[in-house]
Each structure stands twice: as structure tokens, then as C-alpha cells.
Amino acid sequence: MRVSLSGLGTPILLEALPDPNVSSELPPQSFIFAEDDVFLKSDFVSLGYTHFEVICIGAAGGRGPLIYKGVSSWPYYFVGLIEHWHDPIPVAQSYRSGAGGGGGIHRVVGLLADLPDESPVVVGQPGADGPLGHVINDEPFEPVPPYSSGSIYDEPHLIVYPAEDGEDGGYSSFNGDLAQASGGKAGAWPLVAIAGRTNHPMRTDYPRTAGGDGGEGGTGGQIEPGGGGAGGTTEYESPPTEANRSTYNFPTHILAENGGWDGEFGEGGGGGRGGRYYPTSYVSQTGAVDVYANTQQAGSGAKGAYSFGDNSKSGLGQGRQNEPLSANSLIIPGGGGGAKPNALEAYGSNGPVSSPQGAVFIRLTKVT
Q1: Which residues form the domain of 205?
Q2: pTM, to two decimals
Q3: What total number of domains does the chain contain?
């Protein structure tokens, strides 16, 4: 027989010996609060239970709004050095806001005798996604001298259906500040979607911006949203210049960060950066119109409550997704991962096999 000693690790549940101090006559009881309630200590002390374990998990943050933008292509092309003008060609753009961060986690153990008779339970609810925003041109393109390939065009915009921010995820708590975990922050707007801007090719936010930044994950030990893994972002060259203008369509994508876990406090994973589908058109010398897309792909959500040495509480992040209306481009970001109170359930995330709402988990034991 060969034995491998790999250092200190977590017990293998099917093989580990039972705790000899836990009563075999009174088996452990565990349950999850899915909504606000009150924990009554007397119901369990009278049965002989002596110790508790509480795990609070915050709720997932919502996505920012989807921005659908109806625009027209630049109305000119060149044959040699002679500029030709054509009617604006309608194209459609989609700018996705960032995804929300996952909920944080806080674990506390103690004596039932130290709890008050009634412990209020607060269960965080997921933040709502921002609604659809629709942006159109307020007036057609107007050329600004000099007329050249570097011409600048003012393009005022009007938000016809105003987009609204997504909501942060709610916090979960047990007995006030004894155990508490904040929700993830909502994803941010794409910069291009802000009303009233005058845009031109040299601006960092149009049309070369990607989608909005992802929301920060929540964390254990606080009720204010965020504090966990950073959301995905976009890094632009600064400042833009005539020399780098042609490469500004390809900013650097900074991935969302995993949330940590130390056995007591844990962080939600950051939400993914939103993507952009930006179709445009090119009129050839023969007058043919070729419509092509310049796409910035979205990012996936990061893991929550992740530790290399103990992944028992880690929740998976949500993967990025296709947008069917934008030629199946991967521009929909994934939300950050939350946490698992046990091996079978996960909360605080829109990730796989997880609920976006928060949770409060209680486990009671009798120790002799």
C-alpha cells in the first residue's frame, strides 16, 4: 500500500471519522432561511442543542442597462484623392453594461447560550437588472472642415427610452452584526451611453469604447455593497492621439477577479465586463456597401469565496453569453460567483446551479 502525505487539508466527508464530542443521540440540525425571519433560541436549547454555526451570503448585483443604439455610417468615401458622399446607411449597435458582482460570505460559530432569545434574520435579495435603453441620433451627421479621412463629425444623441442603473445586491445578516455579508455591486454603464455627449473619432468613449465595467463582489463582515473581487474593466491608452487613433478599437480587457476566502470571511467574485457590437459600413469605389462588425467581447464572472486550500465554499461565476440580435456576438457579460453554505447549494450569483438571492444557513449541534 502506498500512502501520500499531501499536508493539511479538509476532511473527506465519506471517509473522515465523526467528531467524538458531538452527540450521536441528538443529530445535527441544519436549515436555510430564504427570506427574512426570526431565529428562536429556546426552540432548540430545550431539545439539548448547545452550539451553532451560521453562514450568511449576500445577494448578486444586477446588470446595468442594455443600450441599443440606432446610428448611421459616415456618409463619405474616397476614390483616389476625391471625396464622394452617399446617403447615411442605417446600422445598429449594442453596448452591454457590466454584469453584477457575487455576494460575499461570513461564517460564525459559537454557543447558543451566548445568543439572545430572538435573533433577527435578514436575507438579501438580488439587484434588478437595468432596463433597456434606446439611443438614436438627434440629427444627421454634418461634416466639419477640412474634409479628409481624419474629419471630425459631431453626433448629438438623444436617449428616447432612458436607461436606468441596475441595483446592487442586498446584504444578509444574522442577529445584527454578529454575522453579515454584503451583496455584489451592479454593473456599470458603457461610457458611450451617456446622454448629451458630443462624440468624435478622437474621444476615448466613442465609438471605440467597450461595454461597461463589471460590478465588485460583496464581502463578509459588512452590509455596504461591494468590497470583494474587482469587476472586469477596460484599459484604454491615454490620452488618445492622432497616431494611436486607428488602434483605439482594441483596448485591453482586464478580467474580473476571484473573491478570496479565509475560513471566516469571504468575497464574491467580480462581474464580467460588458461587450460591444459595433457594425459599420464601407462604400467601395464601385459604390458597393460592405457592412462589417467591430466587436469587443464581454467577460465572464469570476469565482466567489475561492481559496486554493479550501474550495468547499467557492461559487462558480457565470460565463459570458451570445447576443442573438448582434450576430451571436459574445457581448453579454457573466455575473460574479457567490458562495456555497454546503456541498449541494450555492447562493449570491447568477452562475451555474446557483440562486442570485442571498441566504442565511444555520447548523446546530449538541457537544457533550
Answers
A1: 29-365
A2: 0.78
A3: 1
